[in-house]
Design brief:
The protein is an alpha+beta fold and 706 residues long. The chain contains 26 helices and 20 strands. Strands 4-5-1-11-10-12 form a six-stranded antiparallel beta sheet, covered by helices on one side. It has a six-stranded antiparallel beta sheet with strand order 6-7-8-9-13-14. It has a five-stranded parallel beta sheet with strand order 17-16-15-18-19.
Length: 706
């Protein structure tokens, strides 16, 4: 893991520079017992007052600090396409209070600006590079990871947050700004944390569309051109960065060549590569990277010996059939002479749930159960590896966007998506059902939507309406402000009541309401959840010396995609059409037949096969689960669900993934040793007492069953 961490104190003297200087770090703060603390394995970017450290295996080109004077400086961590002069101009603009420019350069990075005693930390739009904060030593500590702050304050678990992760993971009001650690808070996507001598402020840097008037009509062609330009700039920023060669090969192994030694030791191929699944997102990135001027891929004399060709990796699942057409399309795309195609095979040993141990991640996420599957593919990848994650969330139309069209009086644009759903379902009643649900959502206030979900959780009305199956059922269920998560059916009444109370509290906050149309609001929430899970996946499947690049989650790409008109998004096959236009504009005209065809069935089949193969270890995992100790589930209920799912019962597999991943994360967290900080002889770590649930967190609520 890599993160940055720092703090801002209420007075310059609160940080004990003298004792810190004795350690050689030049910065520090006094802990609860008078000791000076600083992060383990860190490099100091600037010192007291308000110090900042970079922690972890950052590359030299991923950490840049530019100074305008002794009181004004900017640190950019990550891959940023801005030159030093552009950073200096952005720093001067930020000194006057303008923050948006700090987020408008190509790449994926975190920017920190210090102007006197004012420190500004900018999060990203998607949520893939979050910012966290907590009160500390009379001021505020901040970091781009939650666990270091939890260690700093010896935080206990936030059981309400864990319950909300299971009961309503797609509802921002249920999670609010909380994290799994009590006292550690998250800055929402699209916002910046501003600290003034320890005082904290959260400020948004993106304009929000008005609900009073319809958005001005957007030109579809110009909007798609904007997506193309943003994607090309995002890929070009990665291509222009220095090439990296992983750690040197420690020596020969009898019977193994260099490539075999590298694979056995988990080292990536030097240079740049990309996923090539056969889907439109990964294919677009691979073709853009291979087609840009310059040296696209592996370095001469290293790795595959493929010269300057881009390494394209395709995963072939031998345990679950169903993706043969995608692999054929990947093979056709790999015929490009600038691509070097590698096919990675995997059997039952890399099915979901096959590997239940792994590294501790900053937060829990559903991808923990599939991390070994991804790691098998990424181990054959490059030191810098493109992945297509996020394309679906930024380009596709969330079903709730149909309500946005009704609010903007664009009823005729509902015809094509509704006709596609009717064709998939084969029922003539689909158009009327979908239109009625969209109209109902368009007329439902945000507060009413939250209150309805709170009532559903209290009354345990968690099943979807009868007949809500397939694409039509999923669309009808999504046409609402908020809905229960797939794991909610297995939670205890107490846990559901706790989430209901959180939702009711959200409706009484000042300024309630997202200030957006329901479809746009739901799409942003889905993007934030996907970006958070991708962050978990990066940590759980991490290959040493490898960097994953997801350009679809870059700020400028997200902005360009948000500029796409609703009428273009809701067309069936819109994502494939947009990316086809992007490639055509970049000079790639020939694509294999069927390119962009969706294929979700193999993913569910792999999850079900993994549950069947790993049934015994999963049942053993939930023999005495920590989730039950925390009061979130009953062990026998989860074991019954696991047995039924392994036997083929139609249960929500996403909900089981949420349960298993949270249980795995809790076990890894409680079994860890050490802390993220040195100089803390009297401080252990986050969650020092294990699962200790406070009593009477939720007042008794009438009508709640156990």
């Amino acid at each position: 893991m890599r993160w940055l961490v720092g703090w801002s104190s209420t007075a310059a003297g609160a940080a004990v520079s003298g004792s810190a200087g004795a350690t050689g770090y030049g910065a520090g703060a006094t802990g609860y017992d008078g000791e000076t603390v600083h992060p383990v394995g860190s490099q100091l970017l600037w010192g007291d007052p308000d110090p900042l450290w970079a922690v972890g295996d950052w590359r030299p080109d991923e950490v840049r600090v530019v100074k305008a004077d002794d009181q004004t400086r900017i640190a950019v961590l990550g891959l940023c396409g801005a030159s030093d002069e552009q950073l200096r101009v952005g720093l001067l603009a930020a000194r006057g209070g303008a923050l948006r420019h700090l987020t408008a350069w190509p790449g994926s990075y975190t920017a920190v600006v210090k102007v006197g005693r004012r420190v500004t930390v900018c999060g990203d739009l998607a949520g893939a590079r979050p910012v966290f904060h907590t009160p500390w030593a009379g001021g505020t500590a901040f970091a781009t990871a939650a666990l270091p702050l939890a260690d700093l304050i010896e935080a206990n678990l936030d059981f309400g947050h864990l319950a909300a992760l299971l009961a309503a993971p797609d509802v921002p009001a249920a999670l609010h700004d909380s994290t799994p650690y009590a006292g550690v808070h998250r800055v929402p996507p699209g916002h910046a944390l501003i600290l003034r001598a320890g005082a904290r402020e959260i400020a948004g840097y993106e304009p929000v569309a008005s609900l009073a008037v319809a958005a001005p009509p957007a030109d579809p062609e110009r909007a798609v051109d904007g997506v193309r330009d943003a994607l090309i700039e995002a890929v070009r920023a990665r291509m222009a960065a220095p090439r990296h060669v992983p750690d040197l090969d420690p020596g020969p192994v009898p019977g193994m060549g260099p490539a075999e030694r590298r694979a056995a030791r988990g080292m990536p191929v030097p240079g740049i590569g990309a996923d090539l699944s056969g889907g439109p997102a990964s294919g677009t990135l691979a073709l853009l990277a291979a087609g840009l001027p310059g040296r696209p891929g592996t370095l001469l004399g290293h790795g595959t010996g493929a010269g300057e060709r881009l390494l394209a990796v395709t995963f072939n699942d031998l345990a679950v059939p169903g993706r043969e057409a995608e692999r054929e399309r990947a093979g056709a795309l790999a015929a490009n002479p600038r691509l070097h195609h590698v096919v990675v095979t995997g059997g039952e040993d890399v099915l979901p749930y096959a590997v239940l141990d792994g590294p501790l991640t900053d937060e829990p996420g559903p991808s923990l159960v599939t991390a070994a599957r991804h790691r098998a593919r990424l181990a054959a990848g490059s030191a810098d590896h493109f992945v297509g994650h996020g394309a679906r969330q930024v380009l596709d139309a969330h079903p709730a966007r149909l309500a946005d069209l009704l609010m903007d009086r664009k009823r005729r644009h509902l015809v094509r998506p509704v006709a596609a759903l009717a064709k998939a379902d084969g029922s003539v009643l689909v158009p009327a059902r979908v239109y009625a649900a969209a109209r109902r959502l368009a007329r439902t206030p945000y507060r009413t939507g939250l209150e309805a979900l709170a009532e559903r959780l209290l009354e345990r009305r968690l099943d979807e309406p009868a007949g809500a199956v397939g694409a039509v059922g999923a669309s009808l269920a999504a046409l609402t402000w908020a809905r229960p998560g797939p794991a909610a059916r297995w939670l205890t009444g107490e846990a559901l009541a706790e989430v209901s109370v959180r939702l009711q509290g959200a409706t009484h906050r000042s300024g309630v309401g997202p200030g957006q149309r329901p479809g746009d609001y739901r799409a942003r929430a889905a993007l934030a959840r996907h970006a958070a899970d991708l962050r978990v996946l990066e940590q759980a499947a991490e290959i040493r010396s490898q960097r994953l690049h997801a350009p679809f989650l870059d700020n400028q790409v997200v902005r360009a995609c948000r500029a796409l008109p609703e009428t273009l998004r809701v067309r069936p096959g819109a994502r494939a059409d947009i990316l086809r236009t992007v490639l055509r504009g970049a000079g790639v005209g020939e694509l294999p037949g069927g390119w962009g065809a969706p294929s979700h069935a193999p993913t569910a089949a792999a999850a079900r096969a993994g549950l069947r193969v790993a049934a015994d270890p999963l049942l053993a995992l939930f023999e005495t689960p920590l989730l039950a100790e925390a009061g979130l589930v009953e062990a026998r209920v989860v074991r019954k669900a696991l047995r039924e799912a392994a036997a083929g019962e139609p249960l929500p597999l996403d909900g089981l993934a949420d349960l298993v991943s949270l249980e795995l994360w809790l076990r890894r967290l409680l079994s860890r040793r050490g802390t993220c900080w040195t100089g803390t002889p009297a401080r252990a770590r986050a969650v020092p007492g294990g699962i200790v649930r406070p009593r009477a967190e939720v007042a008794p609520v009438r009508g709640i069953g156990a």
